[in-house]
Amino acid sequence: MGNAKKKTLVLGIGNTILRDEGIGIHVIEYLEKNYPEQDDVSFIDGGTLSFSLAGLLAEHDQLIVVDAARTGGAAGSVVCFEGDQMDRYLTGNRQSVHEVGLTDLLDIARLSDHYPENRALIGIEPENMEWGEEPTDAVGAAIPKAAGIAIKLIAQWAETSNNS
Question: pTM for the whole thing?
Answer without folding.
Answer: 0.89
